[in-house]
């Protein structure tokens, strides 16, 4: 597991209750901003999921180290999910590709296939935002895989790598408590509310008005996590079916790989998250260099639509100055409206009906 995730386990839970309100938050130190921007530049140059994850991990470390800075706890939380998304996609798809090319499975090859898939799933679990039903589904998939592996003389999942043994032990204890629940649907609903309340608390400390758009964004996040869990569990099921039948289901592999590719950029790509992400990137200058590469939809986060100014007070034209000024003001209003709708500057001021300081032109 990346070290930033290990560091964030206590941070994500403790800071949710103890961090100061926005008014008392510290500013980001200049050195921290410089380090964050340097990592953002690395992210912009990254060519592989592993390179992207490494750059995001550096940014996460900066946020964690400066945990009292304005919005640092929320930034760290969002970054660690982006990092997991990058790695879970790459590791699961690569592992299933090994399965596709494998003949008879020996213990070493089996470990190369199953170990990364299970490890990715357990990393999602360790962040803490796993619903009871999702945990039980993954546990069922692991148990079924272990049954088939035993029949084939292959090791149990817990025997594949030392780091998996401890993770599985913690996960199994968690699942045991979930299996004792009488009403799993209600437990899922209560867990969802707990997660949303915590995340909204983090967003509200950056700016209280964020809570409404943040609620939409964080519900997108939970939907993303559910999809990540479903596809990771589907990957384990594909391994099990391949071992049972002796045939590799290429269509199932393509579906899982394509879906994981869509999910790889984390939970922040949905249109419904745009409003929150733009507001967040405007509120936290430390994020601005990284917004495009981190969130996609926030590429234009620093665009200020009200800065569109066609300099209508200085429109010339002699006897036509009156009509020209009306045209100028209509054009300016139209440009600002288009900018607000599209999230970027669309078009330019009318060259024949604008002042000399007009922008854009």
What does this structure look like?
- This protein is an all-alpha fold.
- It folds into two domains: 3-295, no CATH class; 303-361, no CATH class.
- Helix content is 68%, strand content 0%.
- The protein has 13 helices and no strands.
- It is elongated and about 95 Å long.
- Residues 3-23 and 297-302 have low confidence and may be disordered.
Topology:
Blueprint lengths: L2 H16 L11 H16 L3 H17 L6 H30 L5 H20 L5 H20 L10 H18 L4 H23 L4 H35 L4 H14 L10 H10 L7 H5 L25 H22 L19
Task: Name a few traits of the molecule.
361 residues, mainly alpha, 2 domains, disordered N terminus
Brief sketch in words of this structure:
Helices cover 68% and strands 0% of the residues. It is an all-alpha fold and 361 residues long.
Total helical segments: 13
Tell me the domain tally. Answer: 2
Gyration radius, in Å: 25 Å
Query: Distance between the terminal alpha carbons, to the nearest Å?
Result: 50 Å
Low-pLDDT stretches: 3-23, 297-302
Number of strands: 0
What structural class do helix, strand and pairing data support? mainly alpha
**Can you write the helix and strand succession as a string?**
HHHHHHHHHHHHH
How much helical structure, as a percent, in the residues? 55-70%
Reported for the largest beta sheet, the result is:
none
Beta-strand residue fraction: under 5%
Q: What number is the mean pLDDT?
A: 76
Gross morphology is: elongated
């Amino acid at each position: 597991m990346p070290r930033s995730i290990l560091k964030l386990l206590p941070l994500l839970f403790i800071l949710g209750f103890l961090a100061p309100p926005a008014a008392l938050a510290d500013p980001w130190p200049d050195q921290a901003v410089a380090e964050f921007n340097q990592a953002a530049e690395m992210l912009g140059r990254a060519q592989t999921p592993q390179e992207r994850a490494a750059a995001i991990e550096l940014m996460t470390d900066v946020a964690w180290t400066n945990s009292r800075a304005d919005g640092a706890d929320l930034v760290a939380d969002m970054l660690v999910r982006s990092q997991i998304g990058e790695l879970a996609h790459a590791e699961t798809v690569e592992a299933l590709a090994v399965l596709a090319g494998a003949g008879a499975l020996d213990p070493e090859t089996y470990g190369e296939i199953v170990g990364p898939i299970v490890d990715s799933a357990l990393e999602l679990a360790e962040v803490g935002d796993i619903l009871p039903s999702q945990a039980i589904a993954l546990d069922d998939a692991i148990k079924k895989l272990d049954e088939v592996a035993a029949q084939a003389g292959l090791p149990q999942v817990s025997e594949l790598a030392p780091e998996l043994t401890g993770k599985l032990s913690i996960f199994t204890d968690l699942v045991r408590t979930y299996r004792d629940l009488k009403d799993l649907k209600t437990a899922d609903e209560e867990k969802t509310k707990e997660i949303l309340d915590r995340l909204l608390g983090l967003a509200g400390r950056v700016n209280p008005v964020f809570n409404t758009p943040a609620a939409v964004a964080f519900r997108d996040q939970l939907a993303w996590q559910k999809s990540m869990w479903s596809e990771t569990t589907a990957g384990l099921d594909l391994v099990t079916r391949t071992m049972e039948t002796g045939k590799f289901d290429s269509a199932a592999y393509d579906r899982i790989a394509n879906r994981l590719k869509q999910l790889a950029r984390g939970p922040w790509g949905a249109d419904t998250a745009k409003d929150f992400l733009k507001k967040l990137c405007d509120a936290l200058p430390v994020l601005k260099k990284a917004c495009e590469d981190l969130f996609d939809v926030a590429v234009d986060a620093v665009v200020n639509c009200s800065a569109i100014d066609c300099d209508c007070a200085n429109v010339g034209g002699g006897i036509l100055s009156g009509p020209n000024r009306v045209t100028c003001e209509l054009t300016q209003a139209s440009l600002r409206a288009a900018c607000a709708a599209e999230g970027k500057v669309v078009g330019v001021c009318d060259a024949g009906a604008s002042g000399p300081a007009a922008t854009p032109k």
